[in-house]
Automatic annotation (TrEMBL):
The keyword Cytoplasm applies. It comes from Noviherbaspirillum suwonense. It is an enzyme of class 3 (hydrolase). This is D,D-heptose 1,7-bisphosphate phosphatase. Keywords: Carbohydrate metabolism, Cytoplasm, Hydrolase, Metal-binding. Belongs to the gmhB family. It holds the Pfam family Hydrolase_like. It comes from the Bacteria. It is found in: Cytoplasm. Its EC number is 3.1.3.-. The keyword Hydrolase applies. Its main location: cytoplasm.
Length: 198
């Protein structure tokens, strides 16, 4: 079995600094669901691991999170894609749980649930903590530049061997052998101070 672990916000759907608090706020990144469909067709099982501290903060409840995930699953099915499971951490940073990324707890749960080693399993995220959570348990870190990805790349300190791609669709192109990663440090600043992908 081939497994791939994806972060949710900023990888599959558009991220928001104000949290995704309702199904209406959950909007897929163009091409992401089709990319998951291509993974499925190539034999990958696709699992999501997502920090959702908005629950601990009281911004939304588990019922709403389930409704958001129903929308995700339905949208995936519309695109011919299937997300096997969504694991989430509902805690805040100061809860000191074992599941909030960068801790590896969620990924270890995935490993035991699917009865697989995580060694070499692609782990796709837009934040450093996503990649750190997977790196310690043997995953291959993939940074996407959607969501917080540009900021994450600019800050540096990525786990050794991190592969950088513009988005999930490009990650999948690469996994299915159609594209090469972008160089980690090749950043082209724009006049307005924003950065665009190399
Ligand atoms: Mg994210
Ligand atoms: Zn947790």
């Amino acid at each position: 079995m081939r497994l791939i672990i994806l972060d949710r916000d900023g990888v599959i759907n558009q991220d928001s600094d104000d949290f995704i608090k309702s199904p209406a706020e959950w909007v897929p990144i163009p091409g992401s669901l089709e990319a998951i469909a291509r993974l499925n067709q190539a034999g990958y099982r696709v699992v999501v691991a997502t920090n959702q501290s908005g629950i601990a903060r009281g911004l939304f409840d588990v019922k709403t999170l389930n409704a958001i995930h129903q929308k995700l699953h339905a949208a995936a099915h519309q695109a011919g894609a299937d997300v096997d499971a969504i694991f989430y951490c509902p805690h805040a940073a100061d809860d000191n749980c074992d599941c909030r990324k960068p801790k590896p707890g969620m990924l270890q749960t995935i490993a035991s649930r699917f009865n697989v080693s995580l060694k070499g399993v692609p782990n796709v995220g837009d934040s450093l903590r996503d990649l750190q959570a997977g790196y310690g348990v043997g995953c291959v870190p993939y940074l996407v530049l959607t969501g917080k990805g540009e900021r994450t790349r600019a800050k540096g300190g990525l786990p050794p061997g991190t592969l950088v791609f513009s988005d999930l669709a490009s990650v999948v192109d690469s996994l299915l052998k159609d594209s090469k990663p972008l160089p980690v440090d090749e950043i082209t600043p724009q006049k307005d101070g924003r950065r665009r992908q190399a």
